[in-house]
Amino acid sequence: MTVSQWMDIWFEARQTDLAISTKTLNEQMIRLYIKPILGHYKISNLDYLTYKNQFIDALLKTKSVNTVKSAHGVFNNAINLAVRNEILSKNRFTSMKISKEKEIKKGGVNEEEQLNFLNEDDLKKLLNYLKKADDMTHTALIWTIALTGMRKGEVATLQWNDIYLQKCTINIYATRDYLGHRDAKTKNSVRIVEVDPELWKLLDSYRKKIIATSNDYVFVNFDTLIPIGKNLAGRILNKAYEDKIISKKNIASRASSFICYNHVCSRSSNSCRS
């Protein structure tokens, strides 16, 4: 069995045990780091030195210590389950020291202060904060980014005919930047993501409220009926920081800023209501 195959099995097995914010973190670490780097290795053949050199040390060259620790933690938990299920005899990766001799500087700022995603606690606080807010557009916007993995430019171009609520999916093929509404930047950017049941309920409620505007775009300003700009999400985050809801002010423009999770939706039926 490959690492990629086992991570899928482990992730599916853990879905009912974890809070959604923890699952989002797990999904991101698997999708962005574990599978691309380790996915092709057989879990029975992956040794300590290979893991350290190819995964830990390689990530530390470009990622923060906290990010690498998060990725290692997810992988370590998956290996522990493999041991408990007697797929592996032991966990070879428990005594892993993760640190940098010198912190990488970016524009004179410590990289550790420039983490490009919200931690689990911040994400949970942010989603609860927005859910209680009066602005439904802001709430639906950030929840969509957080739970699908969409970039801010992609969510700004989202139209209702891209969302298939009964199939629990969203088609992503366009973005918005200084060039305006245009096709996705790369072939990999064209994709289908699954919709979490809780997000489905939110989008369904939002659709019923917004439908009176007869606007093709999902996220619009209720006063002007103009589609939102791609910078709105950043302004919402800055406001949450000013209100002391989250601890990070400068969040990157990618959806990974929110620790995205897009595999929650149950596939046991054809409806997100399940």
SS element count, helices: 9
How many separate structural domains?
A: 2
Largest sheet: 3 strands, antiparallel
Q: What is the CA-based Rg, rounded?
A: 20 Å
> Number of DSSP strands?
7
Identify the CATH class of the largest domain.
Mainly Alpha
Beta-sheet strand percentage? 5-15%
Helix content: 40-55%
Mean pLDDT: 77
Oligomer: single chain
What keyword list fits this structure?
274 residues; mainly alpha; DNA polymerase, domain 1; hpI Integrase, Chain A; three-stranded antiparallel beta sheet; two-stranded antiparallel ribbon; 9 helices; 7 strands
Helices and strands in order, then pairings?
Elements: H1 3-14, H2 20-38, H3 48-60, H4 65-84, E1 105-106, E2 109-110, H5 120-131, H6 136-148, H7 152-156, E3 163-164, E4 169-172, E5 174-177, E6 180-183, E7 191-194, H8 197-210, H9 232-242
Antiparallel strand pairs: 1-2, 3-4, 4-7, 5-6
